[in-house]
Design brief:
Radius of gyration: 31 Å
Helix content: 10-25%
GO molecular function: metal ion binding; poly(A)-specific ribonuclease activity
Cofactor: Mg(2+)
Keywords: Exonuclease, Hydrolase, Magnesium, Metal-binding, Mitochondrion, mRNA processing, Nuclease, Phosphoprotein, Transit peptide
Organism: Eudyptes chrysocome (Western rockhopper penguin)
Structural class: alpha+beta
Shape: globular
Oligomer: single chain
Family: Belongs to the CCR4/nocturin family.
């Protein structure tokens, strides 16, 4: 192919201006010189194929005069010509036709789009513009500066019929929403069992050109292939890449606990409303232990605890809620980066991640891009904030009187994720979205009280000092039932120093202090019988608290029925990916 292209190029004569012709259109036969030039990097890269067929990849200083780069190209071209001459000499010795004698370096010049030669003293960064023409001897190359390029294209390892397949797409000078996607399926072997051909599997186009593909039951047993062409939204496209699934589509689990909930959330809610979701999704780092398999979840089929299987269910569940805000807890960092962020991005959601201190999991907040933009983030680690932020000095001083409790509080890795969002349609509407996962131990009520006091003080600082009077949505796994001191404190605005939770872990860890806050918060989903249902425990631990002065509840999406939750004894199960249940509600501005 390259030989034919070069032959065509050699037949073309005339100046680059004539070559460009009317309207600046370039002949299809012109080869490419791809330039990557990023302002934050000191060097630019240049890739092209010399007339002798050798591929070149050069790195040049952006500030270097163009003349030096062109001289280097000429030297490389001369070396290539010399190699060709040696082959030619060998051919003569063997009685073949004589080749050309070794020649001096060819003339190398760069022409702008309008056909003017670019001066050799112009810096490389300014010289190598998109649409310019590089001439090496008689060969000409169209310069493509920062063309769209894929840096990563991956398919999930596990594919289930009826569940969306969301590829991970990373690109440079491009955006996934502007890329072109084509899905293919393997062709089933003929009835006689013969192969589709000697060249490997035959592929048949399987779906419309969409970023997300949901395989049907008819594709069970077949592998998938994705062809992606990167685009930048300005009608520029880069070279496509293909990726094949590592295994075939497998049968799905049938009915899932969230199917009936999706009937309420088929569409994104309207302007002025916000659909919020809070969900502890069960970190893989906790699900994949021998203790989990044998003690915590012995009733759950081992394959249903596998990350790839649970991710299939989780992505379908979350996508089907058509949410505007999603606050997740127990999110493995790798799950966020490789699975959830790419998948939810395809459904119009932008993700933010905050890892716990000294852990592999943390919190994730997603918001719908066409409804909200991110103004700022104000995440904290409770232990660090308590020690270093003057905002918490009074609480820190009180806590110092109880060294055993203080030590436990400071050892905890819990964090608070706080994001300030602004409505894309009404910039006067801003909202503070907080997300947390409090200390888990059943006897840690006193620790949780300290953590929530720090959280509410910090949120008050954001909503009163930084962004006066903006409302709050506070989601999370609070590890606190409605009868706990933590829930009572959030709900009522205060807690007495003699509350029983101050001695939740016995007299030696007694910690008596009155606490108060000024928010008027309401549990938007009420007090369900349970949001966590495992073999040895069930109870309500998760909440979506809202600022009742500014927001009101439009509807609460019903939780799965008790029969659905207990179909496989408890959670997680083959039809539910976590040991918690998502809370979902539609809110509206007052």
């Amino acid at each position: 192919m390259w030989r034919r292209l070069r032959s065509a190029l050699r037949r073309l004569r005339g100046s680059p201006a004539a070559f460009l012709g009317g309207g600046g259109r370039l002949p299809a036969a012109m080869e490419r010189a791809v330039v990557r030039c990023v302002p934050s990097e000191p060097k630019l890269s240049l890739r092209f194929v010399l007339p002798d067929g050798s591929a070149k990849h050069m790195q040049r200083d952006q500030a270097e005069p163009l003349g030096r780069a062109l001289a280097r190209i000429a030297t490389n071209a001369a070396k290539g010509h010399a190699k060709a001459a040696k082959k030619s000499k060998k051919a003569r010795a063997e009685g073949g036709p004589a080749g050309e004698a070794a020649a001096a370096a060819p003339a190398v010049r760069l022409f702008s789009r309008d056909g003017e030669a670019v001066a050799e003293e112009v810096p490389n960064a300014a010289a190598w513009q998109d649409g310019a023409v590089l001439q090496i001897g008689e060969a000409r190359y169209r310069v493509e500066r920062n063309p769209p390029a894929l840096t990563e294209l991956q398919l999930p390892r596990s594919l289930l019929a009826g569940f969306p397949v969301c590829p991970k797409v990373s690109a440079e000078f491009a955006a996934p929403q502007h890329c072109l996607f084509r899905w293919y399926r393997e062709q089933r072997p003929a009835a006689g069992g013969g192969a589709a051909g000697d060249g490997g599997p035959a592929w048949v186009e399987a779906a419309a050109a969409e970023r997300v593909f949901t395989p049907s039951n008819a594709l069970v047993g077949l592998r998938l292939k994705l062809r992606c062409t990167p685009g930048d939204g300005a009608q520029r496209y880069g070279p496509p890449r293909e990726v094949e699934s590592s295994g075939p589509v497998e049968a799905g689990p049938g009915a899932c606990t969230f199917d009936s909930r999706h009937l309420y959330t088929k569409k994104v809610c309207g302007e002025g409303s916000i659909r919020a979701v809070s969900y502890n999704i069960l970190a893989d780092t906790y699900a994949q232990t021998e203790f989990s398999r044998s003690v915590l979840y012995p009733y759950c089929a081992p394959y249903a605890l596998e990350l790839d299987y649970r991710q299939n269910l989780l992505k379908k569940e979350l996508a089907g809620y058509s949410a505007d805000l999603i606050c997740l807890q127990e999110v493995d960092k790798s799950v966020f980066v490789d699975s959830l962020a790419p998948a939810l991005d395809a459904f119009g959601l932008e993700g933010l991640f905050r890892i716990k201190e000294k852990q592999h999991e943390g919190l994730a907040t997603f918001y719908r891009r066409d409804k909200f933009s991110l103004l700022s983030q104000h995440d904290i680690a409770f232990s660090e904030a308590l020690l270093s932020d003057p905002l918490h000095k009074e609480l820190c001083d009180k806590l110092a009187e109880y060294p055993l409790v203080q030590e436990k509080v400071l050892q905890r890795s819990s964090v608070l994720q706080v994001s300030v969002l602004q409505s894309t349609t009404d910039p006067s509407r801003k909202i503070c979205v907080a997300n947390t996962h409090l200390y888990w131990h059943p006897k840690g009520g006193n620790i949780r009280l300290i953590q929530i006091a720090v959280a509410l003080s910090h949120i008050k600082h954001v909503t009163c000092d930084l962004y006066p009077s903006i409302p709050v949505i506070f989601c999370g796994d609070f590890n606190s039932t409605p009868s706990s001191g933590t829930y009572s404190f959030i709900n009522s605005g205060g807690i007495a120093e003699d509350h029983e939770d101050w001695v939740s872990n016995g007299e030696e860890e007694r910690c008596n202090m009155p606490l108060s806050h000024s928010f008027k918060l309401l549990s938007a989903c009420g007090e369900p019988a349970y949001t966590n249902y495992v073999g040895g425990f069930h109870g309500c631990l998760d909440y979506i608290f809202i600022d009742k002065n500014a927001l009101e509840v439009e509807q609460v999406i019903p939780l799965p029925s008790h029969e659905e939750v207990t179909t496989h004894q408890a959670l997680p199960s083959v039809s539910h990916p976590s040991d918690h249940i998502a809370l979902i509600c539609d809110l509206k501005w007052k």
